Amino acid sequence: MASSPGSARLTVLLLCLLVSSTASATRFAPADNHLIACGATAPVVLPEDGRRFVPDTGCASVRLRSTAPTLPSAPDAAAPPPPSPLHAAARVFSCHASYDLAITRRGRHVLRLHFYPFSPALAAARFHVGAAGFLLLHNFTVSSPVVKEFLLPVDTDALALTFVPEPGSAAFINAIELFSAPEELVGDVGTLVAADGTVGRTDGLSSQVFETLYRINVAGRKVTPFNDTLWRTWVNDGRFLVDTGSSGSTVWSFGGRIAYPKGSRLMSREVAPDNVYNSARSVRSDGNVTWGFPVPAGSRYLVRTHFCDIVSKALYQLYFDIYVNGHLAVKYFDISSVTGSLAYPYYIDFVVDVEDEGILKLAIVGSKMSRSEQVSGFLNAIEIMRMNKTGGGMDGDFPVSLDMGYAIRMGIGEFVRSLLCGLIFAGLLLVLVVLVMRLRTELRNNGTLCSRQSIDSGDGKLARAYQLVPTKTDY
Ligand SMILES: *[C@@H]1O[C@H](CO)[C@@H](O)[C@H](O)[C@H]1NC(C)=O
Ligand SMILES: *[C@@H]1O[C@H](CO)[C@@H](O)[C@H](O)[C@H]1NC(C)=O
Ligand SMILES: *[C@@H]1O[C@H](CO)[C@@H](O)[C@H](O)[C@H]1NC(C)=O
Ligand SMILES: *[C@@H]1O[C@H](CO)[C@@H](O)[C@H](O)[C@H]1NC(C)=O
């Protein structure tokens, strides 16, 4: 049957519709999906990915408990606009406080904590953050906008996210993301590269807590949450390359289709999106490419190396070695034999201890076994996650009580401390009342809202963090 150009166009259109509808139908929809704008008075919609964050009050699945009242806070009206709408408000805690987030499906969750210290008092805040009794951030301070991402197993019906200020300080948070991680995101087994260079198998990874340190799109553009089904950000590898001059590496980008396996329980777009797999950096058979990542020393790391052969014209052309922290981890890696097809994504998880140097190195080294001199091996992406040091915390065990129930059973020392918290809070309230009164007078006098200098009393630093009233009109 002959088809007219018109009907051909219609077929193309229908195909496009089909493709786009299946693409949207398979978009990841987490069972639990808490998006919370702390201290905000209205929902915040992110312009970059359209996600809607709801205020932390008046939401049925989120409960805020605190041993002392907490205050919403917003930047000074005169301050420069915040980097993200999520940074336009915060909740500030003068004492132990906790969010209980309802969990409908137990299992691994992704937790992202957004911090932006929009006032000097917040920048001076020193505090601890725990989740489910596990210390995630110890003695934490923030000097610039930062997102802390953790992957943690949750086996209760509510996750308690606890903030504990250091004595005399405050704690704060701007936004929280907590959503169910897809099953395939973290496997249980990895390749252990020990300090003495022996390589073996390690398991039990699925019960660990991970903190994401780096997410690198090798030789590719920055991938934003818009193009990542788990709303991740991947950055270019350029500034982590060591020794680029001598390596003779080549940059590749691919316009074809990444062949994600259908219905696989191990590999999907949620592991890494197309935009990450469609770029790579290759190495010559006589060269090497090395990346170096500054990391806190004395921790164990999960190094995920992503491969997707977008550089070969045929199978079985490439053989290369992978070095992790200076140790040969894989010899003559032959990607074709594990994937059996081109443009098919694959990853290897290495587990490595970084002792004192504080730099984690990763290298791909060409091999004479390869069919071509020009291209011997390649890499598409790197993820580096720090693993928990003990069963109690990312950094180890510290005498920080994350238990909210302690207020009931507390001893005399705790009682005094909570009394102190109450006093600090009363002090803040007093400052606030004075502020409101001054503001009223000033408004009457010159009709302006700017009164920065008016709060430089002894408590000036803290008071600025609690500038509730002067900025309320921002919303
Ligand atoms: C936090 O750091 C400060 C200053 O280094 C220190 O005095 C304090 O003991 C630390 N707190 C905890 C719980 O480790
Ligand atoms: C998303 O990916 C597409 C295709 O690679 C690209 O054209 C677009 O610029 C990306 N958008 C963002 C916001 O990164
Ligand atoms: C990488 O190449 C440099 C010289 O370009 C060489 O000194 C180094 O030993 C090589 N590293 C490996 C792991 O082969
Ligand atoms: C990390 O935490 C998990 C429990 O959350 C625990 O089972 C595991 O032993 C901890 N890892 C280390 C190295 O202590």
Automatic annotation (TrEMBL):
Keyword Transmembrane on entry: yes
Signal peptide: 1-25
InterPro entries in the record: ANXUR1/2-like, Malectin-like_Carb-bd_dom
Topology with respect to the bilayer: Single-pass type I membrane protein
Occurrences of domain Malectin-like (ranges): 37-386
Record localization: Membrane
Statement: the UniProt record of this protein carries the keyword Nucleotide-binding: yes
Transmembrane portions of the chain: 415-436
Keywords: ATP-binding, Glycoprotein, Membrane, Nucleotide-binding, Signal, Transferase, Transmembrane, Transmembrane helix
GO molecular function: ATP binding; transmembrane receptor protein tyrosine kinase activity
One family name in Pfam for this protein: Malectin_like
GO cellular component: membrane
Chief localisation class: membrane
Name used for this protein in its record: Malectin-like domain-containing protein
Organism: Brachypodium distachyon
